[in-house]
Amino acid sequence: MENEPTPLISVVVPLYKEAVQLRTFLDKANSELAGTVLHYELIAVDYGSPDETWQVISEQVQNLPHLHALRLSRNFGKELALCAGLERARGDAVIVMDGDGQHPPSLLPEMVRLWQTTGAAVVEAVKVKRGRETLSGKLSALLFYIILNKLSGFDLKGASDFKLMNRKAVNAWLAMRERNVFFRGMTVWMGFTTVRVPFEVAPRSAGTSGWSYLKRVRLAVTGLTAFSSLPLQLVTLAGGLFFIFAVVLGAQTLYLKLLGRAVSGFATVILLELIIGSLLMISLGIVGEYLARIYEEVKKRPRYFIADSIGGDPSGNKPAYRESPDV
Fold first, then answer.
1. Do 202 and 278 belong together in one domain?
2. Total number of domains constituting the chain
3. DSSP string, 238-301
4. Which of 88, 129, 206, 311 has the greatest CB tally within 10 Å of its CB?
5. Cβ 105 vs Cβ 42: under 8 Å
6. CB atoms < 10 A from the CB of 10, how many?
7. Domain of 114?
8. Quick check: is 156 in a domain?
9. Is the pTM of this model over 0.85?
């Protein structure tokens, strides 16, 4: 229809130590979005970069009128930086992507086209090649996806944070207020209609990844505990199995004692104590992890604080929750 307003596309980009190649990335993203002939905005979220990322953003705001930027007061993590960007995105559709160049800006027009032509709520970019990555990194990622699939039923193999969500999906995502955020898992959990577009992870143009092995493990633990309580049930199952084993072993010991054939087995006793002790410690660790998640949630602290915003951030420090006719 002639009077139908032109859609607004928001692109949310979390940034951490990306000063070296940030100018190139922003120029490419701005150029690709301009080619869609739609209204658009770029929302950059610097979550505690120790380098000159914020200075580069401040310079680019002068050259890119569509660029808005937020700087968090400290490093609250990428997932919460995404929250800050999504809460301030005004678009009819919102695209989330990394700012290290591994999510190619050249894919942006295709994602917008699929959203407009298919009517899907989510357009997800799926990795067909993971790019340059160590063997241990690939194996650990594969193991995580297998475990998550078995525990929760969600298949995230090849999934990425590079995706487009329409306003209905964004509003639904914003309605989930937990502090332990796992973006790609929460998006799949919502269950909206999704179309997929393949892409190859490009090598970083400059700089090094801010994702250490420890951070990957922490994100994996968050993902597993956020979407399944099965580990707690496994503790109960293991307890039941050991109880049956203890009853059988106790009955056998008593039987041999009554027959006068009981044999002292020091090594066996020590081995059993080690096994049972290890099981108890692991069980307490699993229970403790869930208790820690509950503790963090019930405190109801703000998920992040904004230290600065530039570029005419339309919503200031207040979350933008736009109504959708479908919600």
1. no
2. 2
3. HHHHHHHHHHHHHHHHHHHHHTT-----HHHHHHHHHHHHHHHHHHHHHHHHHHHHHHHHHT--
4. 88
5. no
6. 27
7. 8-208+302-310
8. yes
9. no
